[in-house]
Amino acid sequence: MVNDVVNHDGLTQSGVEWRIRCDLAALYRICDHYGWTDSINTHMSVRVPGEPTCFLINNYGDLFSEITASSLVKMDTNGNIYTKNGGFNDAGFVIHAGIYKARSDVNCVMHTHVRAGTGVSLLKQGLRPISQDALEVYDELAYHEYGSLASHNEGDALGVTCQKGECVILRNHGLLTIGATVQAALQRMYMLVRACEIEIIARGLDEPPTPIEPDVVQDFAKRNKAKRALPEFGMAEWRAVLRRIEICGANWRQ
C-alpha cells in the first residue's frame, strides 16, 4: 500500500508523487552544484505520475539551493494551480505546458541560461559535430527560433520543435532538454552544456577544428540511440552526483 505524505501546505501526495517531488528537488540542487543557475530564473519540471496534464515546477522566487520536495508548485497545462500560496514564472509555464501537451512521452523538461549555451545560441551555424561531447547530443539536436514567451502560441511552437529533437538550442536565449525520466533529461543537459563549452573554446582558437568523418558521426548516433532507449539511461550519472550533493545534506527531501 502506498503511504501518503503531508507537505507544508497540508496537502497529501501519494508515495509515487512524493518520490518524483524528491527527484525534482534534487535536480534543482544538482543544477545549483553545476553552476547552472540564473538567480531565481530558469526552471525544471516533471510530469506528475498518473496525472498526465499536471506537472511540478519551482516556486518562483526560490533559489535553486532552497528548493525542497514540499515547496514545489503543482499545476496543470491549462494554468490551474493546486498548491496553496504557490507562484510560477509565466515564461516557465508557457515552455513546460507547451512541451507536455506536444510530447506525451516526455516526463521531465529542463531549461537553462548557462553562458556557453547562450553563446552558442547566438551563432548562425550553432553546434558543430567537432567533439566527442557534441556527438553525444548531435543527432538529437533541434533549434528553436526566438519568440515572445509572453504568448501561449510560443509554447505551442516550442512543442512542435521538441518533436524534432530532445536537445534544443533556443536561438538567442539558452538551452533546453527533455526526457522520459529526470535522469535522461539531466544527462542530455550535461552533455549539451559540455558540447557548447567546447564549441566556444574552439571558436576562439587560431585554427579550424579537426573534422570528424561523417561515417563516424553516423555510427556514433546509431549506437547512442540504442543507449538512450534503455530505461536506465542517465541513472549511473544521477546516482553519482546525488552522492556528491548529499555531502552538503539531504534537506531537499523535506
Structure description:
The protein is α+β, with helices and mostly antiparallel strands and 254 residues long. It has a single domain, classed as 3-Layer(aba) Sandwich (L-fuculose-1-phosphate Aldolase). 42% of the residues lie in helices and 17% in strands. The chain has helices spanning 15-34, 90-102, 115-121, 132-138, 152-161, 182-203, 214-228, 235-246, and strands spanning 4-6, 12-14, 43-48, 51-57, 73-76, 108-112, 141-144, 167-170, 174-179. A hairpin with a 5-residue loop joins strand 1 and strand 2. Helix 2 packs across helix 5, helix 4 crosses helix 6 and helix 4 packs across helix 7. The strands form 2 sheets. The chain has a 7-stranded mixed beta sheet, sandwiched between helices.
Mean pLDDT: 92
> Shape from CA axes?
globular
CATH class: Alpha Beta
- The percentage helix is 40-55%
Alpha-beta classification: alpha+beta
User: What is the terminal separation in angstroms?
Assistant: 22 Å
Low-pLDDT parts are 1-11
CATH topology value: L-fuculose-1-phosphate Aldolase
What is the CATH architecture descriptor? 3-Layer(aba) Sandwich
The number of E-state strands comes to 9
Question: Mind describing the biggest β-sheet?
Answer: 7 strands, mixed
Read across the widest sheet, the strand sequence of neighbours is: 5-4-3-6-9-8-7
CATH superfamily: Class II aldolase/adducin N-terminal domain
What is the gyration radius calculated from CA atoms? 18 Å
Strand portion, in percent? 15-25%
How do the SSEs run, as a string of H and E?
Answer: EEHEEEHEHHEHEEHHH
- If helices are DSSP runs of H or I spanning 4 or more residues, what is the number of helices? 8
Number of domains: 1
